[in-house]
Design goal:
Length: 286
């Protein structure tokens, strides 16, 4: 039986632990941790920052799985480990796909939006680092009458945004939603997912939006750039050229449809079943 260790329990990790040939490395604590010889997992799922403990886990694992080529390159740059030891498995998508047209009709009724309007969407656990200020600046500069922007986040972040925006007349252009129950419906109802993020770690929401037939845009510093084309990348969170790109796309029905379909085709490669199969292929090589 092989053992695995991880920092974040992803969907793939959860599914792996259901298999009879995989078990989680037991964590030692207290005096046991002091006197017992250190044990390391066969496979380590790496994410986040490097520290002494993480480096030990990486160096002693038989395989290390990261969620982007960017992350792999960082490890190879900072640690003396063979390239073939590190495998890239992108984040897995695990949502029920429904026809965007049907879901958009439902969402527009619920939120009292004209269904003819195009929806530009952002959601994140931390809206500030996800570039919500830049998002607002971009959508307000679009100057298109048939566009509405939706911002979804936790209660605290949305409360702060409401307060900051209270002195501006943006009600007809911006909809703020806190802790929305069915977030998947917002992805399916949207036309554009715009994430001018400051974060470097792979934004799995980009893949989710692509799977839901959204056109997507994010910053070149984020690892999600690896699954999108150059047209969809921003040089920085405040890259003003994105205003013209989004405007042109929303004004061209055929181009928008083409990009939506292309994005879904790409994202279908990263469903939970396919990513789990990819990890099991790696398991078989150990």
């Amino acid at each position: 039986m092989l053992t695995i260790d991880y920092k974040i329990k992803t969907k793939v990790v959860s599914e792996l632990l259901k298999q009879e040939n995989i078990s989680e490395l037991k964590k030692s604590s207290g005096l046991v941790k002091v006197f017992k010889k250190k044990e390391f997992a066969d496979i380590y799922f790496h994410s986040g920052a490097l520290d002494k403990e993480v480096i030990e886990k990486i160096e002693n694992a038989k395989k290390v799985i990261v969620n982007s080529q960017t992350s792999k390159e960082q490890l190879l740059k900072e640690l003396e480990i063979p390239s073939e030891k590190i495998e890239v498995v992108y984040p897995a998508i695990n949502i029920e796909y429904q026809k965007p047209k049907d879901i958009k009709k439902k969402v527009c009724e619920d939120l009292k939006i004209d269904p003819k309007k195009k929806i530009v969407f952002i959601t994140a656990q931390n809206l500030k680092s996800a570039g919500v200020v830049e998002f607002i600046n971009i959508v307000m500069a679009l100057n298109l009458k048939d566009v509405v922007a939706i911002i979804e986040g936790n209660k605290k972040h949305i409360y702060n945004l409401r307060f900051q925006l209270s002195k501006y007349d943006v009600e007809d252009k911006l909809i703020l939603l806190e802790d929305y129950k069915n977030i998947d419906e917002l992805f399916l109802a949207s036309d554009v997912f715009l994430l001018p993020t400051h974060n470097k770690n792979f934004a799995s929401s980009i893949l989710k939006a692509m799977f839901c037939k959204c056109a997507v845009f994010t910053t070149v510093n984020n690892a999600a750039k690896e699954v999108i084309d150059v047209f969809s990348t921003m040089e920085s969170p405040s890259d003003r050229s994105i205003i013209f790109k989004i405007s042109a796309l929303l004004n061209n029905k055929e181009d928008l449809k083409l990009i939506k379909n292309q994005n879904r085709k790409i994202a279908k490669q990263y469903t939970l079943d396919k990513q789990l199969a990819r990890v099991n292929e790696i398991v078989e090589t150990i």
